[in-house]
Amino acid sequence: MRRFLASLFTFVLFSSILLAQQEDKSKRPSPPGTAEITIAGKKITINYSRPKIKDPKTGAVRKIYGGLVPYGEVWRTGANEATELITEADLSIGGVSVPKGTYTLFTIPGEKGWMLIINKQTGQWGRDYDVKQDLARVDMKTEPIEIPIEQFTISFMEKGKDGATLRLDWEKTRAWVEFTAK
Predict the structure, then answer these.
(1) In whole numbers, what is the pLDDT of the chain averaged over residues?
(2) Which string of DSSP letters, residue by residue, matches 132-168?
(3) Are the CB atoms for 21 and 15 separated by under 8 Å?
């Protein structure tokens, strides 16, 4: 009987792991999103998850910045897995050099401005943050958005042949920073 129970437990455990790996991420309350741009012939991609203003359990409208996302604290910049930056080009983000490669993006939202954190640790779940792995911290500018953005959105706006603006939009706030490919 013990052997049977041990076998059953092992089967259930491995089945659970297999099902978790096959999870349809688009069905999550904060589904995946991707922002991509090609500048100077090189692709830059950000993979992230897109939480909403409305609470997925109750449907109630939440206060995002200064509420769900506290001011002055490191935020995973989305939901679920950590937000991933993949760049085929060496970049200058807000004047800071970022070699081509894969990074995790975190932010520190503030009432007057934000900080973008480019971190060398990758593949972690969202809140697993190690300050010792920071490659750089870059100031971001913010501006109000008149019409609230329901779902967190990361996008790029092309600026010239070798530059762009990285934009983070949610609720009534846009945080942004310019960058160029080297």
Answers:
(1) 89
(2) GGEEEEEEEEEEEEEEEEEEEEEEEEE-SSSEEEEEE
(3) no
